[in-house]
Write a structure and sequence with these properties.
Layout: H1 6-22, E1 29-33, E2 48-53, E3 72-77, E4 81-86, E5 97-98, H2 107-118, E6 123-124, E7 133-134, H3 137-144
Antiparallel strand pairs: 1-2, 2-3, 3-4, 4-5, 6-7
Helix pairs in contact: 1-2
Amino acid sequence: MTDMTMAQADIYLDRVDDALTAAGIRPDDFDGSDSDEYAEDGITAVPSAVLTWDTSDLLMIGEAHGRFEDGVLVAWDASRGWVIAELNADHSNGPLEPLPIPITAEPHRVAFTIAAAVLAEPLTTNGELDGPAWSWALAARQTAE
């Protein structure tokens, strides 16, 4: 777990929001909180955030694009890092899959990784060009359909 205060998390998440905005992929909803995630001790609040895209032309999300018709969710918390899932029609989410980036990855890398994962572009687990390959299998299937 990354030891991080909520104030530090707010600064980090603001930088992530700025990077997503600069990349043209700002989420429809970006909710940061420390109220619903707890450390293993069940007492300590863990900074967290939930980002959702209902539609995005750049990310090709939504009914008009024939993929991820109900949207995409990306979540983060200071103990587990970044995860991604497809949203369901009832706004619940499908299975969460960890994104291949460090818990407090540089904000521009977070934006790039989210875009690449959703667009089924190749990534590596260590961020290096010759690193082990990674892709979000669900995005690859959506692209093929």
